[in-house]
Amino acid sequence: MQPRLDSRQCEAFLSVIDHGSLEQAAQALNLTSSAISQRIKALEMELGNTLLVRSRPCRATHAGQRLVQHLRRVAELEQDLQTEFAGQQSAAISIAIAVNADSLDSWFLPAMSEFLIAENILLEVLIDDQDHTHDLLESGMVLGCISAEAQAMRGCQATPLGIMRYLPVASQAYCERWFPHGMTREAMRHAPVLTFNRKDKLQSQILLEHFGLQENACPTHFLPATTPYNRGILLGLAWGVIPEILLRTLPGQENLVRLMAEHPVDVNLYWHSWKVQTPRLTRMSELLIRQARTVLLQLA
What we know:
alpha/beta, two-stranded antiparallel ribbon
């Protein structure tokens, strides 16, 4: 006999994943922690798999991630179907997606806002590095993602969006202080670099490919927010990379020196989504792909 999914057990499991602990999930569902734990144990017994790592925060096992993926998709399909049967095609639906910070800060919202308003879509946007947004789709936390990963996972499709080009830049004063004799390997080893966060490997890629310097070989600042990051470069705090699409309209960009202008860093971006989607998510995916291709670099 095939295992059957109990809606209350699945609700308890998803609540723990969303809130990170049995206690917070219990508060959200107005239950005791013991009741939440018992429901999840019963679900694990029914499916014959351990679904939850009871750590801080709690996280799904590989089997649990597969279940989260399924439950998110079912919830989205049911939500869309209910609004259709109720004659409320325009009723709001919630969609969770993962977007890299540079896309969100440049082209994503201007490209998608009118559609989101017209279709009454409520977005939950999870922000992560383009090399890690795919992990959020794989874990079941989102229904789609913008990622640098070219390979689609099972049941999904990966559609090329274009290239986000990053340019190494620094202020004139910074260059005069740290590169008086040019960007030599020795100069780069001592010159401070600005990195978004510890997942950001773009600067490390430049240092390794062009100067033979390993990660963490240089003094490094970490500023995980786009506006302060760009401001830090303008103020001469360090050198860093800024997307060309953002650099064009950045106030004060005329005072920045383009370092290694002949060696930009190009990142291919892809839209990952499930092959089976609701009509509204399908329309959103199609528009996102079209709009991205009008603003991102497209190579013949």
